[in-house]
Amino acid sequence: MIVIDKSHIGRKIPSFKATAEAGQLRFFAKATGETNPVYIDESAARDAGHPALPLPPTFLFSLEFNQPDGSWRDEVGIQVARILHGEQSFTYHRMGYAGDTFNFDPHIEDIYDKKGGALSFVVKKTRVTNQRGEHVADLRSVIVHRNT
Fold this sequence. Notes:
34% strand
């Protein structure tokens, strides 16, 4: 049985940047069934007081997949074939918009086991700021690793 070592709690994961493009936002909004025109139509967004298309809810999670280096998983002992998506949550501090470049600064917040060590839960928290250094959101995700 492989159990994820708790000594990785607090480990910083390499930061990275990603830019939200208007086409990506429209595609995401349509794919998730968003019907509010402010997420699809730039005129509707401006009429609602936004400087550009706002990010649809949960879009930052998809931008986080742009992380160029996933080697931290190997270093921690996470085997991709053994993981399940446990949960995710978002705390928003301000709006993000098409054209913004976001800095993702992740770290491992916690690691705990269940089922007598058969499952390890890796809690990753990511602070997201925009190109002006403004705090946009905190992302929290839980990766479930099957150890047996």
